[in-house]
Amino acid sequence: MKVYIIGMGALGVMYADHIKEHGGDVAFVMDRERLERYEGRPVICNGREQTFAMLDAAEAAPADLVITAVKYSGLKPAIQTMRHCVGADTILMSVMNGISSEDIIAETYGSGRMIYTVAQGMDAMKAGNVLKYTQMGELCIGRKEPAQKSNVERVAAYFDSIGMPYTVDDDIMHRIWGKFMLNVGVNQTCMAYGTTYEGVLLPGEPHDIMLEAMHEVIAAANAEGIALGEEDVDFYVGLLGKLDPNGYPSMAQDRVARRYSEVEMFAGTVIPICEKHKIPAPANRKLYEMVKAIEKEYGQG
């Protein structure tokens, strides 16, 4: 497969590195301005110097697989960036957080091109051009509609050929909501309290509010017809225990870099769903307010 990746954050670089190191054909696609800024600039991946192929989005030819790996605020621009990358047989997948990126992409390119994906179990952190991780995790892939079955089979065969860690999940929407539940808890809590994976696992207020926020997602998911339960909390909190205890997720990395976060994709999504179903969401409301207060400080001093 010819693989294009939109987004050079931690996940985009981690997957590009794996694909290239295992003999795959991979390139980053970006607009001209970004290309001039990044082309030829090496990235340090766990201590190894790596230089990736990069393409001007306006000149890119269709790929076999396009992976979207951007922040939520960058999704709409990414959909335009990939417009020349999508051909008759192109498969589209997103490794973004949240529960809506695939459906948003499908609005432009059609659901028949999609596979649904959850990236889980990784602790990748990227600062500047340096990527570090101790756990690569795995990609869970699946179909939401019967017509996507062949897409999943093609991608699974490709992942087998390059040794990409993955599983095929027959209930991918349950998986997507489960990972969303984890991110709502851990991402927001680590940012709001300025703490690490270890910090939210130890007894204390961050641990408690993380679990409260996750349980609010369970209530919202159940109301939306997704059967999340306590066993999902146990599973995903268990995953946190396997990560670098001194690491921290993307929103906490945003706080360190003074970047605006994806809080709208997390609490900003959970709260309206809870309101629709008349479900209380005090933990998510508190985390939302705390994150917004932190981000408000960015423009001061």
Please characterize this protein's 3D structure.
The chain is α/β, with parallel strands linked by helices and 301 residues long. Helices cover 46% and strands 18% of the residues. The chain has twelve helices and twelve strands. The strands form three sheets. The chain has a five-stranded parallel β-sheet with strand order 5-2-1-6-7. Strands 4-3-10-9 form a four-stranded mixed β-sheet, covered by helices on one side. Helix 6 runs antiparallel to helix 8. The longest helix is centred in the middle third of the chain and has 22 residues, at 172-193. The radius of gyration is 19 Å and the shape is globular. The mean pLDDT is 95.
Write a concise keyword list for the protein shown above.
single chain, 301 residues, alpha/beta, five-stranded parallel beta sheet, four-stranded mixed beta sheet
Low-confidence stretches: none
Report on the biggest sheet.
Answer: 5 strands, parallel
Spatial gap, N to C terminus: 49 Å
Q: Give the beta-strand count.
A: 12
Give me the strand/helix succession.
EHEHEEEEHEHEEEEHEHHHHHHH
Strand order of the largest sheet: 5-2-1-6-7
Structural class: alpha/beta
Mean pLDDT: 95
User: In one word, what is the shape?
Assistant: globular
Radius of gyration: 19 Å
Strand content: 15-25%
Summarize, please.
The protein is of the alpha/beta class and 301 residues long.
